[in-house]
Design brief:
With about 70 residues, this protein is an alpha+beta fold. It contains 3 helices and 3 strands. The chain has a 3-stranded antiparallel sheet with strand order 1-2-3, covered by helices on one side. The model has no long low-confidence stretch (mean pLDDT about 90).
């Protein structure tokens, strides 16, 4: 049985948590989490992203609806 097609209405926005940036649709559905670590020592030991790296990724994810529309 095929499940119904889900919609994720625009605009998608970015919310910031203590250790993750989250992409959220207009209905509040959380679509993607990108985790980061601010402390360089912990970041390199755990191989986590910096805040700036995580931010670049979520910004591009949040742009997807507009990119796919054109």
């Amino acid at each position: 049985m095929k499940s119904p097609r889900r919609r994720f209405p625009r605009p998608w926005r970015i919310e910031e948590g203590p250790a993750a940036l989250v992409v959220v649709d207009a209905n509040g559905q959380k679509l993607a989490y990108v985790y980061f670590e601010s402390e360089p020592g912990l970041r390199s030991a755990a191989k986590l992203l910096s805040y700036d790296e995580a931010r670049r990724i979520v910004v591009n994810i949040a742009k997807l609806p507009e990119l796919l529309r054109s």
